[in-house]
Amino acid sequence: MLKITAIHTLVDNYIWLVLNNNKCLIIDPNNELLVTKFLRIHKLQLVAILITHSHDDHISGVSALKNIYQVPVYGPKETNYLNNYTIKNDDVINVLQQYKFTVLSLPGHTKYHVGYYHYPWLFCGDTLFSAGCGRIFNSSIKNMFNSLNKINKLPSNTIIFPSHEYTIKNLNFIITNNITLLSNMFIIKYYRRIVKRMILNKIPSLPTSLYLERIINPFIQCTNSFYYKNKLIKLPQGMNNFDYFKYLRNKKDTF
Ligand SMILES: [Zn+2]
Predict the structure, then answer these.
(1) From the CA of 187, how far away is ligand 1's center (Å)?
(2) What pTM was computed for the model?
(3) How does strand 208-209 pair with strand 159-162?
(4) pLDDT reported for residue 230
């Protein structure tokens, strides 16, 4: 059976590891020293490195780890120079015996950003965060919207593993700006209390679930056609769901 664990690095990054007994794959390793130490302590054998996108805080450990362990690197077009295998949407990665991972193209944060999916787990890099979504760098807001829409079509029990611990910041944004598309601010405030306590006790607020994000995350809610077609979410007058998504993303950029 697969297990998932994380190495906390930099200020708020998580490197996710998927373990099948003593074999493991690693997603977005940004620090070779912490990874080698972790693998040694837990007697793990690294079998592959998976990359979601080209930003330094996701790839800065890749070259060193590739040299030390001689393992294949799977990544999108934008990390071509590091990849043994340049992957694209719907490719299947088969490195942990019967446990296969499907590549989901998720552009928006960057042009060729990908996620890795093995039901019910999704490693989504900087596309979706708990209560938020990634910034737009060299892609477009429309791509980000479509990528979140794609994630939102997965089953509600999907467990989501973003790369950053941004939950409190995102909940602060929602609460400060009174963004309650489902009129459920009491739930959002209650959830912030829970997450604050977790962080205080050094417990990650991640992974999250699609079920929870549909309740607290306004970016996911904007992509939910069931919500807006049935007028379950309250969009400001004159704005459609994409306008509001764009408005929220712009507002968050300066929060
Ligand atoms: Zn990034």
Answers:
(1) 29
(2) 0.96
(3) antiparallel
(4) 74
